[in-house]
Q: What sequence folds into this?
């Protein structure tokens, strides 16, 4: 599904990826754009993209599980927020916010993220 | 530091990995089991457990191996070696790291024997850079001695692995002496490798209380090694078996200089508790003990790692990846922390020189 069609507008570069329908909710995809490997995820919250190369030791982020967020309230009760998506590196389990790329417990680390747009049934990565 | 610095990771002459795990199943070992276990377990579906111990941790996708069938065949191992820039691997058990959790002494010993036959027959091939350890189960020391003697000169066997925790007596007990003598005679080092699940056998009460994978993994490996290191030293094993080399595995780095100094500290006032020693514990550690590097805690703080390794001494360290477990170290992880603090000789020693010397790779 990866494509090479490019479009430039307003100083941003738009990279055509392929049909939106090819990436269903719960699926992820590895694409290469201008030599950069990018992992694209489709969740209930929409499409997200980040560098496929984990900042820790280079694990393939596109193969990592996408989960919700577990937290504990003041009463000590565990809650699971399925809307706050986290992606874990499949190698060592480093956890990043899917939307921002920030590491959950070590803020000095973050994954580069990219905007994803859909237009006329097609998927684009933008930077 | 010397001006003889490495310019890049690729300049390292030869990379030897001390800890590359297989992903064997119990079912694969059935044809190699001795009687009556081979007959008892040969019916389909009997020996299909993915782990001997059924302790359930809360793991949501990451925590075990980094893939479901990472390297089941020699060709797969070769591919991973290429990916990780490893020239020679030391193949170690996966499932059989947890042999200590098998609650049947005879079956545990039979599994170790079956594993050894399976692994030497199926994987070890020095021409392909594939070396490995055999696994002993010391519940019947005479059977462990038999295994050592059987494989002492087998192709590709460079050491003998033992899960050091979970026994009624730690390894300094005299009941293990025949094993140490056999290893000395065979000129094979002893590799001490725990597993997360063995924590419950090291400290069963604490294991019940601290019930997460994070705690079990962080605490289990080093505490098991500390216990056995202290016990082996105080019992005088390195004094009585001076040609036996010990390789302590997968427990991180910082505890090593800590424990070395702590043992010396108490030896200063309790020498009578270790009457078999003729020098301080630290000197035995320098002479007889090596440590594998993974998992490197604090890799994002090179100053910490360099200081710890300077205290341990690069001559006592051996690179290990622990592939494919989920706290494995990529091959250049350690190099990236050491490159501006250690010279070529030190880095070459850690990445292969020490292993070639001690394990006859």
A:
């Amino acid at each position: 599904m990866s494509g090479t069609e490019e479009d430039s507008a307003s100083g941003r570069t738009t990279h055509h990826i392929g049909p939106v329908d090819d990436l269903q909710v719960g699926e992820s995809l590895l694409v290469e754009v201008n030599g950069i490997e990018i992992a694209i995820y489709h969740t209930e919250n929409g499409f997200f993209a980040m560098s496929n190369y984990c900042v820790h030791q280079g694990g393939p982020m596109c193969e990592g599980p996408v989960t919700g967020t577990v937290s504990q309230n003041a009463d000590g009760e565990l809650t699971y927020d399925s809307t706050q998506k986290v992606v874990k590196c499949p190698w060592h389990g480093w956890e990043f916010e899917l939307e921002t790329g920030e590491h959950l417990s070590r803020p000095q680390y973050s994954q580069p993220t990219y905007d994803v747009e859909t237009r006329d049934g097609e998927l684009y990565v933008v930077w | 530091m010397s001006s003889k610095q490495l310019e890049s990771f690729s300049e390292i002459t030869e990379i030897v990995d001390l800890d590359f795990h297989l992903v064997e199943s119990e079912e694969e070992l059935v044809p190699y089991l001795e009687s009556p276990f081979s007959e008892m377990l040969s019916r389909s579906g009997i020996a299909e457990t993915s782990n001997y111990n059924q302790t359930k941790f809360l793991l949501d996708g990451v925590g075990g191996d980094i893939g479901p069938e990472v390297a089941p065949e020699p060709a797969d191992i070769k591919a991973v070696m290429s990916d990780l820039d490893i020239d020679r691997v030391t193949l170690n058990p996966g499932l059989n790291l947890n042999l200590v959790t098998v609650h049947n002494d005879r079956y545990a010993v039979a599994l170790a024997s079956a594993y050894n036959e399976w692994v030497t027959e199926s994987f070890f091939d020095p021409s392909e850079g594939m070396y490995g350890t055999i696994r002993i189960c010391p519940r019947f020391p005479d059977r462990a001695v038999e295994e050592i003697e059987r494989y002492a000169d087998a192709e590709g066997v460079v050491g003998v692995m033992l899960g050091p925790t979970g026994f009624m007596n730690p390894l300094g007990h005299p009941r293990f002496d025949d094993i140490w003598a056999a290893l000395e005679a065979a000129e094979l080092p002893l590799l001490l490798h725990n597993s997360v699940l063995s924590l419950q056998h090291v400290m069963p009460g604490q294991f019940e209380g601290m019930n997460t994978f994070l705690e079990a993994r962080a605490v289990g490996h080093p505490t098991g090694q500390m216990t056995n290191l202290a016990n082996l030293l105080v019992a005088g094993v390195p004094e009585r078996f001076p040609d036996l080399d010990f390789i302590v595995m997968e427990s991180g780095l910082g505890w090593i200089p800590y424990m070395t100094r702590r043992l010396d500290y108490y030896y200063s006032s309790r020498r009578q508790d270790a009457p078999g020693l003729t020098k301080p514990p630290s000197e035995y550690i320098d002479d007889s003990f090596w440590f594998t590097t993974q998992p490197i805690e604090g890799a994002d703080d090179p100053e910490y790692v360099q200081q710890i390794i300077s205290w341990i001494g690069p001559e006592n360290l051996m690179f290990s990846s622990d592939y494919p477990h989920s706290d494995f170290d990529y091959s250049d992880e350690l190099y990236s922390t050491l490159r501006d603090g250690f010279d070529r000789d030190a880095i070459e020693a850690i990445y292969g020189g020490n292993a070639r010397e001690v394990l006859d790779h």
